[in-house]
Amino acid sequence: MSSGRAGRGAIAFALFLVYVIWGSIYLSIRLVIEEVPPLGSMGARFLLAGALMAAFLACRGGWRRLRLTRREASGAAFLGVLLLACGNGLTSVGQLHGVPSGVTALLVAMVPLWICLYRTLAGDRPRMLELAGVGVGLIGLAVLVLPHGGERSGLPVVGVAVIVLSSLSWSFGSWIKPRVRLPRDVYVGAAYQLLAAGAAMSLASVATGERLDGEIGPRAWGAFGYLVVFGSIIGFTAYAWLLHHAPLSLVATHTYVNPVVAVALGSVVLSEPVTPALMIGGAVVLMSVVLVVSAHARPRSRGDSSVNDFKVLLSDQRSAGGG
Could you give the 3-state DSSP secondary structure of residue 62? Predict the structure, then answer.
């Protein structure tokens, strides 16, 4: 949509919120899981955020606004588990295994590449620019993960594998969403996705026997509150507003900026090392995302569906402020 309906200042502020909030999500998750088990804490985060969002929507539009058909409820629950419980929740597990928050953000940034692969497997013909982006992205992933310089890589294999799996799950949910019946109200859909993800992760926490050891300190509580209020509510609201008031090419820049913010915050707050491999691999990964997103943003012909695909790519990538 054109940005003419909103002032430049409002657009700049909303974009700043998305840059900072979603760039800081991974640091906040790391601060929480240092003291609280990942599945239980992220499950509680989603449940609380979903309940707060649903209550707000009910106050604004009445409880009828939250009514869903059986197919809409099933679709929202399905995507909530794919996008948030698996797609976002597993990143906390990967970080618990020792993957730095900045590297986590870079691995998650590869979502557009995996979506391109899903589209290819489904029979779509990707553009050469998209294929080039996927190839470049895999090279960047190898630089980040594989041993280099005759030394063993400091990244844990299990943790990286879990985060890549979470990125694949998020990508699959993004790709399949147009085939799923969802509420027309995007905010109602987000609330139910949050609730479904919270319930799934809470059940997984019980099933895996997670236990809380000791008291929760103020830093973890503060990070948890930040994830609920800013990460899952304010960040998503600002993002949804941008999709209706700013050019898609401008909104898409968060895909490149969020990992940079995450790496910077991880280095400053948690003293996570910024190695040459991280800088080179991260730059290559971000370049691959630029190539893929740019291909989506430029339709080949009047009848090309790339613009619609691009909208789906953007809206689903952060469909409920999962970060």
Answer: coil
